[in-house]
Design goal:
197 residues, mainly alpha, Four Helix Bundle (Hemerythrin (Met), subunit A)
């Protein structure tokens, strides 16, 4: 009697891939982190309305809007990369995943420009409670962007040889879940920090 090795993308009885279910659990834990940040921000804002309003006007709404457009675009290219690998189209997969990676770089460059402008004007986390919240929330989010770009770079590297294995498309789907979550968090952070005042 011969034994057959289980596929790499073994499923639970629920029909959900292990990695996908694990990602949902991870996302749930991260939602609690960001909810805590945003909740604390709202409480502090109500205690210091005038100072928060004055500080928020120093933020660059144009750069914030561009960053929002960049991340929304990256969600589209991430989804298209998953569709491409499902269809076995290696060329389109590399193209769309590369565009997603470049959007991540673009986001971080814009955020660096924003930070640099604040630092050059002597605005640091210790300046006031608003900026402490701003740097914590946007910095934590930027760390998540970098966290998504690392596996992207690895998958792109793997695809350069014989191509990314089509039967591992679930890994791209799982990465896509994470990336969409990162984008969604920014969609909440952007109006909270830039537009609410």
């Amino acid at each position: 009697m011969s034994t057959v090795a289980a596929p790499q993308h073994e499923r639970f009885a629920t029909g959900i891939y292990h990695g996908k279910l694990g990602m949902w659990v991870f996302i749930a834990s991260e939602i609690m982190f960001f909810s805590g940040f945003i909740g604390a921000f709202i409480v502090l804002r109500n205690l210091h309305l005038e100072m928060f309003a004055e500080s928020a006007h120093e933020l660059n709404k144009v750069l914030g809007t561009i960053n929002t457009a960049v991340l929304i675009s990256s969600s589209l290219t991430m989804a298209l990369s998953h569709v491409a690998i499902e269809q076995g189209n290696q060329q389109k997969f590399r193209l769309y995943l590369s565009l997603t990676f470049l959007c991540g770089i673009g986001f971080l460059i814009i955020k660096t420009i924003e930070y640099s402008a604040k630092f050059s004007h002597g605005i640091f986390p210790e300046t006031n409670v608003f900026y402490a919240s701003y740097y914590i929330m946007t910095g934590f989010h930027a760390a998540h962007v970098i966290g998504g770009m690392i596996p992207m770079a690895w998958f792109l590297f793997r695809s350069m040889g014989k191509g990314f294995p089509q039967n591992e498309h679930h890994k791209i789907e799982t990465l896509g879940l994470y990336w969409h979550f990162v984008d969604l968090v920014w969609i909440f952070l952007f109006p909270t920090l830039y537009l609410i005042f």
